[in-house]
Amino acid sequence: MIESIFQTFFLLATFDTILISVSIANYAISASYLGRETRLTRARMRKRKQKLDTRIKELQAKGLLIGDLKRETKQAEDDIKSLSNRLFFLSWTGAVLLPFLCFIGSFLIAVFGMNTGIIPNLPANFQDDFIRNSVISSSACLGLGFLFLLVVVGVIDSAARRIPVPEFGVTFGNYESKIELKCNEKKSIMLNVENVGEDVAEDAQVFVEFPNVFQIEKQSFYNVHPADFRYFPDCIEVEHTIDLVHVGVSIRMPIFVTAPNLKKTYEISIIIRERKSGVSKHRLEIEVVD
């Protein structure tokens, strides 16, 4: 009985020692993502706060309800807290110190438990209770430290998978998704292509697909040619090339068009191909009126 209890404490102490080494090795990996994630987390927090401000303004325009305000604020606080926790578990404190304290606590309890028998004049019933509580306490500390270790591994895995890439938002020059043109009106319409992602966009090609009832005036800063009939039948394509778009920067692209004579709402497809993010698709509308 005594030998089996000793072996239990010995195994707990051995696991603690091994897992302390694992937690230190984990930090070597998490530290490589810490700088990038710190930069991205700050940007994500800023975007989340901006989203909350926008949502509050929308609620105010509709007639502010206290319940809706509290719900939106609580959701924003939870999102920001989640982002902060990611950074914590990638840092030295979260990746090493927190599990280390649990493992070293479990180790010390196991050592004390192994040496209980050498304490003189210790009542037998007290010794049994002390050994039982030591096993439970050491196991609990080991389990808690292992749980923290799993959280760190999960955050590292998420950081490794979530590679920052550029993303695009496309609107017309007035930051709307729909504009009006008069029949046969000749006008320069402006497209805004904004990088709303987390990394710089490079070598981006923007393809704007107009129904062929529109007339597109050729210019030196874009190309005009028939669209691929397999994907956009009866369309004419305007192609822009963008070398570089930094995060948060909007590129304005004018297109000189003549509206058709038919009153109708026309869907304009925009395809953006970028070196890192691949292909993204967007849709805008042009309504032709009298």
Could you give a quick summary of the protein structure above?
The protein has 290 residues and is of the alpha+beta class. The protein has four helices and ten strands, in the order ααααββββββββββ.
Main beta sheet = 6 strands, mixed
| Helix percent band | 40-55%
The SSE string, one letter per element, is HHHHEEEEEEEEEE
* Secondary structure tally, helices: 4
Number of domains: 2
Structural class: alpha+beta
Rg estimate, integer Å = 31 Å
Strands side by side in the biggest sheet: 2-10-9-4-7-6
Describe the structure.
- With 290 residues, the protein is α+β, with helices and mostly antiparallel strands.
- The protein has two domains: 2-161, no CATH class; 168-289, Immunoglobulin-like (Sandwich), CATH 2.60.40.
- 51% of the residues lie in helices and 28% in strands.
- The strands form two sheets. A six-stranded mixed β-sheet has the order 2-10-9-4-7-6, with no helix packed on it.
- The longest helix has 61 residues, at 2-62.
- The chain is elongated and about 100 Å long.
